[in-house]
Amino acid sequence: MGDTAYDPATHYDRVTAAWSLLLGADLHYGVFDDGIVGLPDATARLTTLMMEAAQLSSETHLLDVGCGTGSPACRVASETGAHVTGITTSTTGIAAATARAQATGIADRARFEERDGMDNGLPDGSF
Description:
Mean pLDDT: 87
Structural class: alpha/beta
Largest sheet: 3 strands, parallel
Helix content: 40-55%
Shape: globular
Number of strands: 3
Order of helices and strands: HHEHEHE
């Protein structure tokens, strides 16, 4: 590999479109309750289980680290009323997530920022 340093932001900008083709809009794996369920249903199931476990409300401020293209974050904001901030190092992901929030009318509850998940600069206790 030579002296080329790995840059996460560049990597995610390059792979987001391909991963969307493979994994769907949610960009994550899911919960496969049986051998028949398809990936879109399994990823939706995982998001549903997380929302139920977290007991989210309109008073909740949630941080989605590694938000991808914002599909789960937008669903959370839409269905629970929670305020969601999604962060990723990918400008491609931020652009897609912001467009998704605007298109679904929840940009007031779901916002997306380019930040490093390990050193995000957000105030402690914000979420």
